From TrEMBL:
It comes from the Bacteria. Pfam families: VWA. Keywords: Plasmid. Residues 43-177 form the VWFA domain. This is VWFA domain-containing protein. InterPro entries: VWF_A, vWFA_dom_sf.
Amino acid sequence: MRGRNKTHERGITFDGNRLILSQMGVRDVFRAQSESKNRGHVGLVLVRDISASMANDERYIHAIKSDLALSMAAESLSKMHVSNIVFPFKESEFEIIKTFDQSVEESLSKFTLGCKGYYTPTGSALMAAVDLLLDSQFDRKIIFLITDGYPNKSEFTIVEVMEKAKCNGIEIVGVGIKTDEIIGFETDTFVTVDDTSLLSIEVSKLVHQILS
């Protein structure tokens, strides 16, 4: 009996999210009892394109899987808060589907949103993410944009958003869905997801690239 209870006696429990992530190469599936309270000082906003063009070649499916994988990978790290935005949304340019205080599990049904809009207001959605982070107290602030790379005109241009983010110490990285170009991004600031079987590799590469 003692051997079966050993991990509990040492104050260690299984982390459900990390058990899922173990399939993606994460090896640390244990969590100290105090870890869940030690949330840290990194804020990450994931901004996902759900415009009509994402229906082409089932890009929206890759985008949803990327959004979930990145969210879960980040959520498993003790020093990160994650919020998620989709764009466009019905009559609005964007919608916050998960706040920093919510878990992926609590917001899971909203992650299925895809191909809801007929235009791509990338600049406005990114600016919303920038403003969300500016209202926070995190020591480090990061935005991941998940898109097929072709924005329409919106209230803000990609250049304007990039400049505001840079001036405020906010990092923006792109996840290109079946595209090797994201307008407004340099080649070293995005990764491409072409095959869902390689998603775990690209997610791992991106997370380590931005957090290193």
